[in-house]
Automatic annotation (TrEMBL):
Substrates-to-products reaction catalysed: DNA(n) + a 2'-deoxyribonucleoside 5'-triphosphate = DNA(n+1) + diphosphate
Any one GO BP annotation for this protein: DNA-templated DNA replication
One Pfam family, short name: 5_3_exonuc
InterPro entries, sorted: 3'-5'_exonuclease_dom, 5-3_exonucl_a-hlix_arch_N, 5-3_exonuclease, 5-3_exonuclease_C_sf, DNA-dir_DNA_pol_A_CS, DNA-dir_DNA_pol_A_palm_dom, DNA/RNA_pol_sf, DNA_polI_H3TH
Domain 3'-5' exonuclease stretches: 310-499
Domain DNA-directed DNA polymerase family A palm stretches: 669-875
Subunit comment: Single-chain monomer with multiple functions.
GO MF, one annotated term: DNA-directed DNA polymerase activity
Organism this protein belongs to: Marinimicrococcus flavescens
EC id: 2.7.7.7
Protein name: DNA polymerase I
Domain 5'-3' exonuclease stretches: 9-264
Coiled coil location: none
Alphabetical list of NCBIfam families matching this protein: pola, PRK05755.1
Length: 911
């Protein structure tokens, strides 16, 4: 193992005093059995639990204020004098949060006369000088002064990193100048005077211009604005005093030496006693996770002392030994190395195995030399697969992989089945959702403190990159065997968390069954008519040419429709269209889809023409031209790859090609679907959930009128319009129904008056009145929305009906636009996520049912709420009935699930 793979020592400094206040005001009231308030203690304890798991190999120190007075009161008597006494419910919790830290056997430091910020600054400096990295866990703006190489910040309330970009966004200056910015603006919460009338923007402007606070004050007489000049001159000493007050003292004597802050494994008995005393029932089950984190810490230390051993298997006796150990232990981590990420185009190059942490094996099978000849010393592929086949199918041996869907597909094409399986990527996704990425490299770094060998190191990058079969066996062995060994260690770390964090059901019922199902769909692919696509490309190109001519006529001159700069000049400089002419940072006018939609809604013809042109351009580039290139010559089909851990809601996505975004409501989109055709001797069957997200909303929000409408199979949009506009359903015309439909779906995505006005082409005031009328009619929906936002603010995530966590990291963002976006996500995620979970349950049950019936039908595509199957003509009726029964029974809601089934020779006909 090279030096670069050794984890860097890190010291995590937790701002305990800052967190307790924020937790108190963020969480609802809670009391323990004796009546003592504990909401802030509960939040603090949860935060520590997460830190222990996410930083299993790091040292953690919790820092507190020791009192209200510090050396700053000697400098300025009024410092923090305006602070009110803490709420009575918070006072008894100050001591309890320190008890919480000690229950985890974490060092707790506090010194009279010093603030927690000063101790954090001093520990950060000492650790940096000792060559350790530092992570400060705090939301306090004052601590942003500490950001520098080797010192980073983590906001525990928002669950996000704070880096130079965030500091620049907040203060307008780099971290090194935060102290000077604070000295100018002052701080009302701490009674730091600053300079009256100088806000953050002005402070940033002045510091950028003069370079430092002292340079600014010395040259204040040169400032052109009279009032600003006089204010700075008159308050120069206040600024200098403020500079001393906001600065952090980083040379304090450390109450505990760095060596005394080293991590200790928590005592489960001590933790259990603390949780029980404070009534934290849900946390007792998570002690197992803390024990696992401690075990991982010991394991990391052991691995640091002895690097993993990676070796190539070049004789069958060695392979038999590894497989015998797998049979004995009941587990085998496995990974395949190939020439492509596309499961159908890929050729198998080698197989990696691991049965114990610390050692990995690689079986080279298809490596070639510079002349394309097979390298010597490799085992015969057929013989190896024959040895592996019984073990990979043995139900007593668990096969563990990372994104094992791919490996299942690769080996299935060679006639080898893998079952049962566990997937570390999906374990991580079930546990932590979209709170971070789930690549093996990232998880190894996050959970094991281990840096994996990058692919580029052995195969290069860019034009000089080679495929894996061209990589020398010696280099390939370390890279490939490491994959299997790291996967095994990740599995040992992640698996115990499922029960401890009550996520076993999400993983076992929603995620774990899917790799085999999706792998079979990817290998099957779907037939595409290349001639039809080329014909559509020609048609779309002709229409684009006509639209381009129309755009030139409307503009009064030729211009490049694909140039945002030229389009902006035509719209706002030459045609002088008012209302949306805002410029970007580059100085060019913004001409994105939102801007053009807004202008088109106002009745301007050119923006609508450009939008239509862009739509055709996208369809041509993304589908009619690109899909032809994606057809695999040997199969005549396209084989999309499903991404299982890429969305915040649990939805699947697809890539190469992406089949999720074909616009099904447009004529052009439907024509593209015509090119997806059934294999000779088969028909396509489409099964589509009807209005599933509205049904989920009616169930979750408990809206009786909507539930009744769904139960009676009444037009839901007409019912909504009838309720909103107080008219009988029979009198609801197309316009009112359209408005109700737009609101019904818009509510799912947290639509506002501006967005609704754009979609309906009506004034914002009228759109606002529509939304108010909707909430008056369905107050339960408003209640649901507020509850979803409140849950997100408290926990950082919302849940689907089946327990999946959908993380909303920006829910407490200070920037209104980001916070509003997060609030819309919090409203939508449980609905969209529940619909996605229902579809996953349906796919699992349908695959089981088709296998039991020995049906000739097979699933080909999953696109949002729709499944597409290929079915023998003689089985269409039976398969249609089976699919409808399974999909409609995939979940028990207070409204019926309805599935529309259609068949045809192509996808559009079937849909």
């Amino acid at each position: 193992m090279t030096e670069s793979t050794a984890p860097t020592k890190r010291l995590v400094l937790v701002d305990g005093s800052g967190y307790i206040f924020r937790a108190f005001f963020a969480l609802p009231p809670m009391t323990r059995p004796d009546g003592t308030p504990v909401n802030a203690v509960f939040g603090f304890t949860n935060m520590l639990m997460r830190l222990l798991q996410d930083h299993a190999q790091d040292d953690i120190v919790v820092v507190f204020d020791a009192g209200r007075k510090s050396f700053r009161n000697d400098l300025y008597e009024a410092y923090k004098a305006n602070r009110q006494e803490p709420p009575a419910e918070l006072v008894p919790q100050f001591a309890l949060v320190q008890e919480a830290a000690r229950a985890f056997d974490l060092p707790v430091v506090a010194v009279e006369g010093l603030e927690a910020d000063d101790l954090i600054a001093s520990y950060a400096k000492a650790a940096s000088e000792a060559g350790e990295e530092v992570l400060v866990v705090s939301s306090d703006k004052d601590l942003m002064q500490l950001l520098r190489e080797g010192v980073s910040l983590w906001d525990p309330m928002k669950q996000k990193s704070i880096g130079p970009e965030e500091v620049m966004e907040r203060f307008g200056v780099a971290p090194s100048m935060v102290r000077e910015a604070l000295a100018l603006t002052g701080d009302t919460s701490d009674n730091v005077p600053g300079v009256p009338g100088i806000g953050p923007k002005t402070a940033a402007q002045l510091l950028t211009e003069f370079g430092s606070l002292e340079a600014l004050l010395e040259n204040a007489h040169s400032i052109k604005q009279p009032k600003r000049r006089e204010t700075l001159i008159a308050n120069a000493e206040k600024a200098r005093l403020s500079f001393e007050l906001v600065g952090l003292k980083d040379d304090c004597e450390l109450p505990l030496a760095l060596d005394a802050c080293r991590r200790k494994a928590p005592d489960p008995a001590k933790l259990l006693a603390f949780f029980q005393e404070n009534g934290f029932k849900t946390l007792t089950a998570r002690i197992a996770a803390v024990e696992q984190a401690a075990a991982e810490q010991r394991q990391v230390a052991d691995q640091a002392a002895e690097a993993p051993r990676f070796s190539a298997i070049t004789d069958m006796a060695a392979l038999d030994t590894v497989l015998a150990r797998a049979l004995d232990l009941g587990r085998l981590a496995i990974d395949t190395e190939t020439t492509s990420l596309n499961v159908v185009r890929a050729r198998l190059v080698g197989i990696s195995l691991s049965v114990e942490p610390g050692e990995g094996f690689y079986i080279p099978l298809g490596h070639v030399d510079d002349f394309g000849q097979r390298c010597q010393g490799q085992l015969d592929m057929a013989a190896v697969l024959e040895r592996l086949r019984p073990v990979l199918a043995d139900p007593s041996v668990l096969k563990i992989g990372h994104n094992i869907k791919y490996d299942i597909g690769i080996l299935a094409r060679l006639g080898v089945a893998i079952t049962p399986v566990d997937d570390t990527m999906l374990l991580s996704y079930a546990l932590d959702g979209a709170s971070h990425g789930h690549s093996m490299d990232e998880l190894a770094s996050r959970h094991l403190g281990y840096e994996t060998i990058p692919y580029a190191r052995i195969c290069g990058t860019g034009k000089s990159q080679i495929t894996f079969d061209q990589c020398p066996v010696e280099k390939a062995t370390e890279y490939a065997a490491e994959d299997a060994e790291v996967t095994l260690r990740l599995w040992r770390h992640l698996r115990p968390r499922l029960v401890a964090e009550r996520m076993a059901s999400v993983y076992e019922t929603l995620e774990r069954p899917l790799p085999a199902i999706l792998s079979a769909m990817e290998v099957a692919g779907i037939r595409v008519d290349a001639g039809r696509l080329r014909q559509l490309s020609g048609t779309f190109t002709q229409r684009m040419a006509r639209l381009e001519e129309e755009a030139h006529r409307l503009a009064g001159r030729p211009f490049n429709l694909g140039s945002p700069k030229q389009l902006g000049e035509v719209l706002f400089d030459e045609l002088a269209i008012a209302g949306a002419g805002r410029k970007t940072k580059t100085g060019a006018y913004a001409t994105g889809a939102e801007v053009l939609e807004e202008l088109a809604a106002q009745g301007h013809a050119l923006p609508r023409t450009v939008l239509d042109w862009r739509q055709l351009q996208k369809l041509t580039r993304t589908y009619t031209d690109a899909l032809v290139e994606e057809i695999v010559e040997e199969t005549g089909r396209v084989h999309t790859s499903y991404m299982m851990a890429s969305t915040s809601t649990g939805r699947l996505s697809s890539t190469e090609p992406n089949l999720q975004n074909i616009p099904i409501r447009s004529e052009e989109g439907r024509r593209i679907r015509e090119a997806f055709v059934a294999e000779n001797g088969f028909v396509l069957l489409s099964a589509d959930y009807s209005q599933i997200e509205l049904r989920v909303l009616a169930h979750m929000a408990g809206i009786e009128a909507l539930k009744q409408a769904f139960a009676n199979d009444i037009d839901i949009h007409a019912v909504t319009a009838s309720q909103m506009f107080e008219k009988p359903v029979a009198e609801i015309g197309p316009d009112l129904r359209r408005s109700a439909k737009t609101i019904n779906y818009g509510i799912i995505y947290g639509i506002g008056a501006f967005g609704l006005a754009q979609r309906l082409g009506i004034p914002q005031a009228q759109a606002r009145a529509y939304i108010e009328a909707y909430f008056e009619q369905y107050p339960g929906i408003k209640d649901y929305m507020e509850q979803a936002k409140a849950e997100a603010r408290e926990k950082g995530f919302v849940r689907t009906l089946f327990g999946r966590r959908c993380y909303v990291p920006e829910i407490n963002a200070r920037i209104p636009s980001r916070r509003a976006y997060a609030e819309r996500a919090a409203i939508n995620a449980p609905i969209q996520g529940s619909a996605a979970d229902i579809m996953k349950r349906a796919m699992h049950h349908l695959a089981t049912a088709l296998h039991a019936e020995q049906a000739g039908a097979r699933m080909l595509l999953q696109v949002h709420d729709e499944l597409v199957l290929e079915v023998p003509p003689g089985e269409v009726e039976a398969t249609g009935a089976l699919v409808r029964k399974v999909m409609e029974g995939a979940a028990e809601l207070t409204v019926p699930l309805v599935v529309d089934v259609g068949t045809g020779g192509n996808w559009d006909e079937a849909h």
